[in-house]
Amino acid sequence: MANLILVTGGTGTVGRVVVAHLLDAGRQVRVLSRGRRRTGPAQHVTGDVRTGEGLAEAVAGVDTIVHCVDPAQRVVQAALRAGSPHLVYISIVGVDRVPLGYYRRKLADERLICESGLPATVLRSTQFHDLIAAMLRLLAKPPVMMVPAGWSYQPVDVREVGAALSSLALGKPGGRVPDLAGPEVRTVEDLAGSYLDAVGMRRPILSVPLPGRVCRAYHAGGHLAPGRAIGTIGFEQYLGEQLAAGTLPYDDAIRDYTGRRPSKRTHPH
Ligand SMILES: NC(=O)c1ccc[n+]([C@@H]2O[C@H](COP(=O)([O-])OP(=O)(O)OC[C@H]3O[C@@H](n4cnc5c(N)ncnc54)[C@H](OP(=O)(O)O)[C@@H]3O)[C@@H](O)[C@H]2O)c1
């Protein structure tokens, strides 16, 4: 039985769900993030997986690491020095099919983890509802909502991804495990319509064909896993719950894809 589990990025969108599940399961949890040291039922270590700062302290004495942030190299090195705990990594469906720089780096991290000699488990999921909502929020800003023609998404609820990761963390190392995808493959036009309805906006939706290899790969559905539609919480349910709770889709979720961190969080309309 895992005694102490480190969740890197444990204050993030999926990381905090993992932390909550592990605490519910009665495990001791340590969180690593760059933000201010927090108090609560989980221990918090301030550190940075890019520079390695705080990693030795974070991995000391842990049986398992759930790695919910990128990159992985310094975490792997620290884990090897700290007695080789089980490393559980969250990756993305299609990192081997969509030639996006971010996906290439995640694929390289998957390989690094699986070949490191650490006991490892890698779960790929499709895009979280949060990311799709954040993307649609940006696309809905101009008077005409332009969306990429012919693209679909299969968004999944982060509660289901977090539950899957925590259960993998409590189990035996499985290597690359079957992908986790949302309940439905939906065209981006369809998702955009649902978003506009949910937030009470009216916009004409214009489908624009996009050129290039990355766009062709999205068009071909390289990021989808229709055979692994395990998630049960759909996009409309997610939107309804977010709006009812006053918790909003936020711009930060897109920063990994654009390389930019928007300066502030605002209401979607
Ligand atoms: N979003 C999606 O649709 C999706 C889909 C499939 C897989 N994934 C994968 O899931 C993972 C987590 O995504 P997410 O959307 O949950 O991320 P997120 O909400 O942006 O959270 C990132 C977390 O990592 C921490 N963090 C960021 N940079 C760090 C660094 N250099 N060192 C230490 N901690 C750092 C953040 O806190 P601080 O800022 O305070 O450090 C935060 O706790 C990523 O690996 C992503 O590729 C995401």
How would you sum up this structure, described in words?
- The protein is α/β, with parallel strands linked by helices and 269 residues long.
- The chain has one domain (4-254): NAD(P)-binding Rossmann-like Domain (Rossmann fold, 3-Layer(aba) Sandwich).
- The longest helix is centred in the middle third of the chain and has 14 residues, at 101-114.
- It is globular, with a radius of gyration of 19 Å.
- The chain has helices spanning 15-24, 55-59, 73-81, 101-114, 129-139, 158-169, 188-199, 213-219, 235-245, 255-258; strands spanning 4-8, 28-33, 43-46, 64-67, 86-92, 120-125, 145-148, 152-153, 175-176, 186-187, 205-208.
- It is built from ten helices and eleven strands.
- Strand 5, helix 4 (101-114) and strand 6 (120-125) form a beta-alpha-beta unit.
- Helix content is 35%, strand content 17%.
- The chain has a seven-stranded parallel sheet, with helices on both faces. It has a two-stranded parallel ribbon with strand order 7-11. The protein has a two-stranded antiparallel ribbon with strand order 8-10.
- The site of NADP nicotinamide-adenine-dinucleotide phosphate has 25 residues, from strand 2 and strand 5.
